[in-house]
Amino acid sequence: MKWILPIFGIVAASRVFGLTLTANVDLRDESGSEAVDYAVTAFEKDLQRKLGFPVPGEATGHFTFRISRDWKAFDRHRIKVSDSGVTITGSDELGLIHGIYSFSEDVLGIDPCIYFTGIVPERVRTLDVPNGLTESKPYTFTHRAMFVNDEDLIIGFQMENQSYGMNPEFMEKLYETMLRLKMTGVIPSTLVLADEPHLVLASDMGLYINQHHAEPLGSVPLYWPKNIPYSWSTHREHFIDFWSDAIKRQKGRNVIWTLNFRGLLDRAFWDDDPAMSRKSSMEEKARVVNDVIRTQYELLKELTGEEHPLICGYLWGELSRLYSSGLLEYPEDTMLLFSDSGHGVMGDWNWKLAEKCDLKMGIYQHVSYHNRKTHMRINAIHPDTFQHEVGRAVEYGMTNAIVLNVGNFKEKIFGIRQMATYMNHFEEFQSCENGDWYFDWYAKHVLGTTQPAVADSYRDFFACPFLFSKDRKNSGDEYFFYYVEQMLNGAYQNEVDRKLMRQDLFSSSEEKWEVALERAYDCRRFLAGNVLDFYEADLVGPTLKMRHLTGMAVDFTASLEHYLNKEWHKAQLDAYQALLHVREALKAEEWIEQSGWGRFEGWYDHDETARTWHIERLLEHYIDHLKDLNYFNLDYSARNPKTPGLDYKYQPYFESEYRDELIWMTNGE
């Protein structure tokens, strides 16, 4: 008799009968691993979520966790269920941890993103689990890492136990979530030393430490001595000391080391090198990078004592261009990561390069991107894009490693779940023509509903933003601050570029958001409890926010048109409407923060990128500027000559909440 446990990505074996679990279970960790201990502690909580709290009495089942010293494989696990209990065996530390969380998700029904979603499984008193032995399948990508980038919200969030700006309790939950999603590694943040507590915690919990493309060997250029030029040509010995220090801080941990060379603060290296310039030849630039990579590799082997340390290189920015010219030389065991555009699109040049590459390959993909125009706080990359790009990467054999840039994580559950599914077992969806399947999958597997309207509300969300280009480079919430700032700077300097005033584009998008918002509010009737709380934070709040940000852009652009035509009062009226919109967008952000029981209250306090709060400040200053203009509205000759004494510059005939703020002027001024 054959059976299949409802465990994603697990090969089934034969069964006999079954095990009945209650809240009274016994957990035995034989691994001797600190990282496994973290997972076992989380697993005990998962049992309580599903079965309740133990009561006095004998254990009804025993869980045993062990690592097989004879199983020579990376990140694999077996789960054996018998009448007496469950044994979860890992081929290594990560394999065992992933086995534990597989049981949690697929047998206990624990949402792997439970810390962020708050969605709990239905409570039962007993749970029947069929006997049998299962073994995990190989993952699509061998090394699977997430990159917490632009972590401004995380820094300072819940600071009652602060350590180097990071709250260790929150970081522990973040790493736990990544392990539940079957990740193997993490870039915990940027611009921090390699032995800071939250990086050490990630390693202690079992994750490999990956490194940012601009922080080779885990070094941090931000801490480069200010009186020493960041120049390989003139200060080679300082780089060797700098990198040596970084290696020593991480020695003995599981690390995938980045070999790379960029300038200070993630720019081209020749901008900091007096012996180089942008006009230097490609050959000269490549010669420097190759010399750096050779030096880094030899230094790494010397200081770690490893003959073949795990290494990678990122083809990001100018390094991609140098490599495409055939000029860069990496060690033969390098995992070369090909980078997307930031909008999820890999670009045809990557596939052409992959055809010629004789190294191990992987990809660097974004679900969140900060470039002042895009999507820091909302999901904006369409599921079609991920389906197409990951499919091509698998086709070209770029599966040795993947680094997924997740931004601050909380706002990106939709995109993260799709990509995590692909990273683990893309073959399950390889035959899909596009990513449309994912809307229904997400509604069912995350929100627990098959109501078509709920899945369609997510489809609507991705249909509303205006596009920067035809390859689904959607606008994001970060764009709106950039737009207001850019246009006001131009207006104040009499240098407005009218081609950037996207009034028709904004108006069309605003109308779509209005309809999407109606449907999203209506869909709440299909959901309840924590699921409804999460849906409101995950979709309704962001839809409301984007509707108001787009409405702000419509009214602000209209105001700017009046400003350029010197129609000062009309400019002020539309500016007020824009200001009201942005205040509603801020309320939507507060609603997102306080969803459920308010676990993420204060999440946006340290927002230094999307900066919705700063749009409000800019518009307030803009309105103050309009109020200061002479002859605010009508020419004196057009005013009512019978008005005695003070002549109001303009009194609208309609009631208005901001009527009292309009400027009064003396007659004939």
Automatic annotation (TrEMBL):
<dbReference type="Pfam" id="PF15979">
    <property type="entry name" value="Glyco_hydro_115"/>
</dbReference>
<dbReference type="InterPro" id="IPR031924">
    <property type="entry name" value="GH115"/>
</dbReference>
<dbReference type="InterPro" id="IPR042301">
    <property type="entry name" value="GH115_sf"/>
</dbReference>
<keyword id="KW-0378">Hydrolase</keyword>
<protein>
    <submittedName>
        <fullName>Glycosyl hydrolase 115 family protein</fullName>
    </submittedName>
</protein>
<dbReference type="GO" id="GO:0016787">
    <property type="term" value="F:hydrolase activity"/>
</dbReference>
<dbReference type="InterPro" id="IPR029018">
    <property type="entry name" value="Hex-like_dom2"/>
</dbReference>
